[in-house]
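User: What would this chain look like folded?
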Amino acid sequence: MIEPRAWQRMLSGRRLDLLDPSPLDIEIEDIAHGLARVARWNGQTIGDHAFSVAQHSFVVEEIAAHVRPGLAPRWRLAALLHDAPEYVIGDMISPFKAALGLDYRLFEERLEAAIHLRFGLPARIPAEIKALIKTADRACAFFEATQIAGFGHEESLELFGRPPAGYALKIEPMAATVAEARYLERYQLLAEAAGYAPAAQAFNTE
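Assistant: Here's the prediction, encoded as structure tokens.
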């Protein structure tokens, strides 16, 4: 019998083995392109455009820097990449992740480790930084929930907590091409500041 295919071909031409992902097969252009086309909240949001994981990611990076002034560029880069595995696996809502259980978590962690190594970060982010990114992630989710996903204010406070003092956000979902370009721009700035900026590679569509 033919073994089921366990790799995905990216627009860059890379073939990423989903069961054993190699950092060498991961490109920032593929991540930005994919995340800009993955909708948060399973697309259940208002507006002409979906609120993409790409846009969510650079907002989370901004919030993390607000919460921790002077945050090192490498950890701001980690915040930008915090949902990068979703360019392959999509944005599963938290209840579904919980239902899938440990196997899904291990798969996600393996892919996340490969992404971190590809972009000059440790495979496992320090617990303190991970907690900071989670705080920023929940704050962004609060703004998303109350402004575009139909949640009430009090309900959102219960689910996501109160956003950090002094930070306000007006959610305006971007077109996929705009979010993709903005994500790549943030990556380049942060990677250069962190001392890690591999040359961008054009998509190979052969």
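The radius of gyration is 17 Å. If you want, I can go into more detail on any region.
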